[in-house]
Automatic annotation (TrEMBL):
Keywords annotated in UniProt: Cell membrane, Membrane, Transmembrane, Transmembrane helix, Transport
Protein name: Iron complex transport system permease
Domain of life where this protein originates: Bacteria
Location relative to the cell: Cell membrane
Membrane topology: Multi-pass membrane protein
Annotated transmembrane regions: 7-27, 67-88, 95-119, 125-145, 157-181, 201-220, 248-277, 289-308, 317-336
Pfam families associated with the record: FecCD
Subcellular location, principal: membrane
Family as reported in the entry's similarity comment: Belongs to the binding-protein-dependent transport system permease family. FecCD subfamily.
InterPro entries: ABC_BtuC-like, ABC_transptr_permease_BtuC
């Protein structure tokens, strides 16, 4: 596929994201006309009194935080997918597939069940902190298993991720069954399917800051990421401290994944699908790939969330269902295209 001009792609994606945001705050149980949404934006920017208090309240208090959370989470998950694929040099890598999301799920479950005890001393950031610890633990386990007594291979990496994913999920479910109450079980069930329904202005700040800072940092790391993607020998030849950067990048991805999982639960396959779509548009150069993937990921998740809360009238479906419906066939397509073999 012929690669498009990066400037043309970025401008087009920004415009597409803007229109997706407008649609996102306009549709729902209460449908707001687009011209009214535009008027509400103008009134807010100019600090004017709202002409329609009901519409303005729905847009700014309910839908805008949710749409912006979709923008932030979509960008963060896409970035995590790109970084993990470069770190392990595997086009099938992403936090969900490698068990990192399951680690975050376990950490969040432990905080929800035990949060009123010792972990309560870090209330406020406690949920994000425990999700980060769980995500980091899962990442370390996967890297250890896939490189134990031999070099890391694609098959070992995927199998290690599957093992860690199953183990951490099983432990979380065990804790829920034996320690959970009706309320905590219902709350934890939310994490397993992913949702943006809890998005508020109050809990938007932390993931937004985390995604912005990590995106800025990795945007400066494009040379190292490009070298990693070319293979270990080339990276070492260029004088890159491969093990050092692998650890730093993995910790940052685990941190970001933990914060996102703590905010909206497990939303799989975004980190797998979006990087490949982005590479098809602008190629593998991370200087172009990162901003493009961030914009596509944001647009994708906002669009999927619109579908999840409007497909069935007066009933909202978990967003993780729709990302899996899109991601699972795409995952199978990649395996077929890459001539995946069980034995090397």
């Amino acid at each position: 596929m012929k690669k498009l001009s990066i400037y043309f792609v970025l401008i087009g994606l920004v415009v597409l994201l803007f229109f997706t945001i407008v649609i996102g705050v306009s549709v729902g149980t209460l449908r707001i006309p687009f011209e009214q949404t535009y008027t509400i934006f103008v009134e807010k920017l100019l600090n004017l009194e709202p002409t329609n208090v009901t519409y303005s309240g729905v847009v700014w208090k309910i839908r805008m935080p949710r749409v912006l959370m979709g923008v932030v989470v979509g960008a963060g998950l896409s970035l995590c997918g790109i970084i993990m694929q470069a770190v392990v040099q595997n086009p099938l890598a992403e936090p969900f597939l490698l068990g990192i999301s399951a680690g975050g799920y376990l950490g969040a479950t432990m905080f929800i069940i035990l949060g009123s005890g010792i972990l309560g001393i870090v209330s406020g950031f406690g949920l994000a902190f425990t999700a980060f610890i769980g995500a980091l633990s899962a990442a370390i386990c996967v890297l250890f298993l896939s490189s134990f007594r031999s070099s890391m291979t694609t098959t070992k990496l995927i199998l290690s991720g599957t093992i860690v994913n199953a183990l951490f999920t099983a432990i979380a479910n065990f804790i829920i069954v034996f320690s959970g109450t009706d309320n905590t079980i219902a709350r934890v069930t939310y994490w397993t399917m992913g949702s943006l329904s809890s998005a508020k202005w109050d809990n938007l700040l932390l993931p937004a800051i985390a995604v912005c800072l990590v995106t800025i940092y990795f945007s400066t790391q494009y040379r190292t990421l490009n070298a990693m993607l070319q293979g270990e020998e080339i990276a070492i030849t260029l004088g890159i401290r491969l093990n050092f950067y692998r650890k730093v990048y993995t910790i940052l991805v685990a941190l970001l994944t933990g914060i996102l999982v703590a905010t909206c639960g497990i939303i799989g396959f975004v980190g797998l699908v979006i990087p490949h779509i982005s590479r098809a548009l602008v190629g593998p150069d991370h200087r172009k790939l990162i901003p493009v993937a961030v914009l596509i990921g944001s647009t994708f998740l906002v669009a999927v969330d619109i579908l999840a809360r409007t497909l069935i009238e007066n009933n909202e479906l978990p967003i993780g269902i729709f990302t899996a419906i899109v991601g699972a066939p795409f995952f199978a397509f990649i395996i077929i295209r890459k001539d995946y073999q069980f034995k090397e």
